[in-house]
Structures are given as C-alpha cells and as structure tokens.
Amino acid sequence: MKPSRPALLCLVTLLLCACSESRTPCNEGAARCEGDVLVACGTDQESPELFEKESDCSEVGMHCVVPSSQDPYARPLCALSADPLPACDGRYNACEGTLFVSCSWGFPTSRQDCASDGRVCVDTSSDFSNCALSSTPDPRCDGSHAACEGDTVVVCEKGYAIQQKDCPGCHLKSSGAFDSSEHNCE
C-alpha cells in the first residue's frame, strides 16, 4: 500500500523537526545559569528572532555566576571565580599584585600578568587600573594621551606611561587624543 500525500508530508515535517536545532524563544536580556552553562537570550546570523543560546563557561576554565548587584543591568556571566573578588567591588578593573584584572559586577572576568612584559599593575583610584611602565606617574604624560620623546612614542593613560615604542620621526597631531592614527612614525 502506498502512503497518502498528507502522511508523507507529516513524516517529512517530523523528520525535519527532529533534525533541526531546537530554538527556545525568550525575552531580550534574559539570562540564567544552569550549573556552569550560561543560557542567554540572543540572535544569530540566520534569524533576527530571539532564542536561548548556551555557553559552557567551564570549557574555558570559568564559572557561570549570578551577580547579587542591585544594578538593573546586572546579568549572569562567565567569570574566573565562582566568588566575587573584593578588589572588583564597584569597579571595571583592578590590580591583584602584578595582575591586571577586568571586572564585571564584582567578578573577575580576565587577568593579565603585567610582569610578563616588564610592566607593573598600577591601581591609583576607583576608576583606573592598568599595566604601566612604572608605578609612578610619568612627567611625559602630563595631561596628554601620547607624547614623543625623540624617536619614541609614549602612550599614556591617567598620567602613567602604559606603552612606548620606536617611532622614527615621531610627531603628534594637534587633537591631543590618542589612537593609532594620532602619531606619525616616518
């Protein structure tokens, strides 16, 4: 006996549904932790529709955490520690010895060892930490984002030299803001 057209259509539909990735609809901004798996609402290149996306934090040595922050924008995230880091409280970054730590809602999200390339971590105020060439402010950085010293450009942040590199014929443009196009090395 030959299957009817509606029966074949039903069978094909069932097979397609069984083989395709399940997409659970969600509300924008929604996120939660399921163990160390971050489940967040988002989109992808295939469709503008919102659906739940999973990221296994443990695959990159992290933990899924839920911040206890009263900030309405705080969302679950992947962090290096399952516990908040006191140095990260209310900050975007901090120093932990020679380590520069990026923070999100009190949790460490990345660490960079400043000492690995001969720099130090400077933690000067509630809004600034970074890897710098010295633990003291650099006079070449007084109020500027970059400075030329002979054939060397010095990149500055909050009065500290954070990088310097060879720049033959170094001269800065007049805007005062630094980005890769703000100095000319001939």
Major beta-sheet overview: 3 strands, antiparallel
Task: Please bin the fraction of helical residues.
Answer: under 10%
> Mean of the pLDDT scores?
80
Tell me the number of helical segments per DSSP (H or I, 4 or more residues long).
1
Work out the number of β strands. 15
Task: Note the gap between the termini.
Answer: 83 Å
- Cα gyration radius (Å): 25 Å
Write down the secondary-structure element order: HEEEEEEEEEEEEEEE
Low-confidence stretches: 1-20
Topology summary:
Blueprint: H1 5-19, E1 31-34, E2 37-44, E3 47-56, E4 63-65, E5 77-79, E6 93-96, E7 99-104, E8 107-113, E9 120-125, E10 128-132, E11 146-149, E12 152-157, E13 160-166, E14 171-172, E15 183-184
Antiparallel strand pairs: 1-2, 2-3, 4-5, 6-7, 7-8, 9-10, 11-12, 12-13, 14-15
Structure description:
The protein has 186 residues and is mainly beta. The protein has three domains: 26-79, no CATH class; 83-130, no CATH class; 133-173, no CATH class. Helix content is 8%, strand content 41%. The protein is built from one helix and 15 strands, in the order H-E-E-E-E-E-E-E-E-E-E-E-E-E-E-E. The protein has a three-stranded antiparallel beta sheet with strand order 1-2-3, with no helix packed on it. A three-stranded antiparallel beta sheet has the order 6-7-8, with no helix packed on it.
Short structural description:
The protein folds into three domains: 26-79, no CATH class; 83-130, no CATH class; 133-173, no CATH class. 8% of the residues lie in helices and 41% in strands.
